[in-house]
Amino acid sequence: MKLLLDMSLEELTEELVSLGLPKYKSKQIYGWLMRGVDFDGMTDIDKKTRSLLKERYIAVPMSIQTKLISKDKTQKYLFRLYDGNVIEGVLMKYKYGNTLCVSTQIGCRMGCKFCASTLNGLVRNLTAGEILSQIITVNKENGGTAEKREITNVVLMGSGEPLDNFDNVIKFLQQVNSKDGLNISYRNISLSTCGLVPEMKRFADMAMPVNLTISLHSPIDERRKEIMPIANKYSIKEIIDAAKYYFEKTKRRVIFEYTLIEGKNDTRQDAEILAKTLKGFSNHLNLIRLNPVSERNLRATKNDKAQEFLTILQELNVSATIRRQMGVDINGACGQLRNTYLKNENA
Ligand code: SAH
Questions:
Q1: Which of 95-99, 150-154, 196-200, 274-278 has the lowest mean pLDDT?
Q2: Which residues are catalytic?
Q3: Lowest mean pLDDT among 63-67, 315-319, 341-345
Q4: Ligand 1: distance of its center to the CA of 215 in Å?
Q5: Nearest one of 140, 128, 153 to 7, comparing CA atoms
């Protein structure tokens, strides 16, 4: 069964015309799809067409399995896909709008030591339509429509490494940006990578003004290797060169993510080397204290030590902020909710 959400409006039109349907119907159907409405709810489509479509396609590829709401209003979702897999997403509410964090893969194969998404490896890539569907589902759940969206910003920071699922992610970006669809500006989208250098360059060459976020987590190659296996493949120098290249091509300021882990990356020396590494080009550093994963023996840097780390960086003229941890009480970090779910299911 094909997913209709994997198709752009043009592709959908071509597909439906080949089944003998009139062209105008594809526009109506596409409108319903963007609102997250299944075949039975497509009231301006006749019954015969609907049952023809139902036999061949999936309109709504996921449902909400669990929804948790944090004290800080953060919403955490576990979605159940049509094939039984589960993935997660997080909706964060800010003054300027609502940001949805979406997953790009079921699981992950990058193996970062602090991250729950990778504990059970990679199950499979998500398709463009499955990434898009997370936005449509949460938008609908919060009373939004395609025209009046409840989601203003999207971050590809859920489970998975987006650049390890390159083609589907690019297609998703084009679809979510499309005027026929949700029409979300590239400038309101951030893609986070652990630093797949060739793919970062390939993405830069596409010159989509998406914000690129790079998970750095240490400015020292040998230390970075201890927490991120991908560091064995690409050096920090290569990552910084790719970041500069990204800025040249897109004119978007690159953001670095830095998870503070006690004793791993939070000393004065780390801050000083980090400041040198980030010098001389347009960037910003987001510090976040580790959200500990119970399976792993890592602790968060204490609050006052994190503040101190920030102060050292600022004295060295680094543009940096500490990000608020959101939704800690509801398994807010990457992969935590799915992981808890899988553990219970197998118990
Ligand atoms: N694979 C991509 C995107 C997913 S992770 C990447 O590596 O960037 C999104 C961000 O959350 C990354 O910066 C990641 O390092 C961070 N992260 C993962 N688990 C975390 C945890 N337990 N505590 C704090 N940050 C975490």
A1: 95-99
A2: 88, 334
A3: 341-345
A4: 7
A5: 128
Antiparallel, parallel or unpaired: β 254-260 and 283-289: parallel
Tell me the one-letter amino acid at 10: E
Q: Mean of the pLDDT values across residues 15-34?
A: 96
Rounded to two decimals, the pTM is: 0.95
Question: What is the C-alpha R_g of the chain?
Answer: 21
Neighbours of 236 (CB within 10 A): 18
Q: Count other C-beta atoms under 10 Å from residue 3's C-beta.
A: 19
Sheet of 320-322: strand order equals 62-69, 75-81, 86-94, 97-101, 153-156, 189-193, 211-215, 254-260, 283-289, 320-322
Q: Two tokens at 347?
A: 């118990």
pLDDT in tens, 69-96: 988 899 999 999 999 999 999 999 988 8
Locate all alpha helices (DSSP H) within 98-189, ordered by sequence.
128-141, 166-177
User: Which one, of 20, 94, 102, 149, lies nearest residue 335 by Cα?
Assistant: 102
Q: If you measure from the C-alpha of residue 56 to the centroid of ligand 1, how many angstroms do you get, rounded to a whole number?
A: 37
Which tokens is 301 given? Answer: 């840097």
Q: What is the Cα–Cα distance from 65 to 341, expressed in whole angstroms?
A: 10
Residue nearest to atom 21 of ligand 1 (CA): 291
CA distance 236 to 221: 6
